[in-house]
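Box 3.1. Reading complex inputs
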Amino acid sequence: MSTTRRGFLAGAGAAAAQDLAHAKDHGHTDHGHSHQAVPSDPALRVKSLESLLVEKGLVDRAALDVLVDTYEHKIGPRNGARVVARAWADPAYKQRLLTNASAAIAELGYTGLQGEHMLVVENTPQVHNIVVCTLCSCYPWPVLGLPPVWYKSAPYRSRAVIDPRGVLREFGLELSADTEVRVWDSTAELRYLVLPERPAGSEKLSEEALAELVTRDAMVGVAKVTLPKPGARA
Amino acid sequence: MNGIHDMGGMHGMGPIQAEKNEPVFHARWEGRVYALNRATGAWGTWNLDASRHSREVIPPAEYLRMSYYEKWLAGMIGLLVQTGLVTQAEIDSGKPAPGSAKATPRLTPAMASQVVSRGIPAVRDVSVSPRFHAGQRVRARNMHPTGHTRLPRYARGKFGTIERDHGPYVFPDSNAHFQGEKPQHVYSVRFAARELWGEQASPRDSVYIDMWDDYLEPA
């Protein structure tokens, strides 16, 4: 096996190319997409791959169902919002969150894949933090769920580091020249959560009501948390 | 490798298109690809770094054309075939080769839940000395390995300051190629935006990059 593994380095590029070539060929033969110039319908290819792995005893469909259900329904930005609201409501918790984020987040029950090593960076009137992964799509799953398409896209990944203010403007956030912008490029296994500024006027809100205000985008650092306009529904 | 995946600082990629009320998966097959990646990754035949590298080797034009989960699918198939768990013929036909053995144990629902909630820590409790310390001026090495690396091109050769020592972590450059974990210290390194991008950047701004010991040299 170790030879196979080492051989992977040399073969990987060719394999990916071959896979694509196959996909193109089979777009014509297997699935009847005769005018399709790109790889055949991924839905069909995935279905076929899943059946193969199940038949080979490598995968249990029930395990796949659990994984999909977990990320569709159980893990998402509501988790992070509860962390933020707790930090706003409880100064001692906020201190723990800023000094040992993984442990403080685990206090609320959020642990696991892509959140093994967490860091929380705090926005203040002077400092604005924004998180990106220029190399792939690293993102703190246990607190934010799986990343949205824009976070994984070439425009965001290419521009967040060279033009963070322009990126923020595109999200509707204009920062003053006096604000210090800190961009966090998630190149290693540390995962970042932005602790947004608590909005003025939210002093009387309960922790639950505060959590309702916190958006995914604010925890990535491309938005601020705002109070709903009077008369508007949150 | 100096691949298309290393996008930081590139121009011409267009505006950011954020979708309102975006679903977690846009089609059923995306969720299945995601889950298959978790389930096949749980065998331990490869690792996270190898998995990332399997997507980096997708040819640049295809990389840009493919959707996110198409890239995951291509990378996973590459790994399955390269590690010998399935053959290309089996991928093509969707049927196991006659007489091929059934694998055990397969990932059960209980194991799947456990992987999700426990995670796969990359920190290593080993005693390796840090080569740098907080507050120290450093330079990111000007290196261009053809294999996997997490040192982005835009930082190479640039001067920064160590902000914090995160402790020893698995080294992706060796781990992705099954050449050992080579645990070493990872630091948060602050680079002034003007050091990276010149006078066009705000003098107040900075980019923080997590860097392994082997990516750095004393300034």
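In summary: Residues 103 and 193 of chain B are 51 Å apart (CA to CA).
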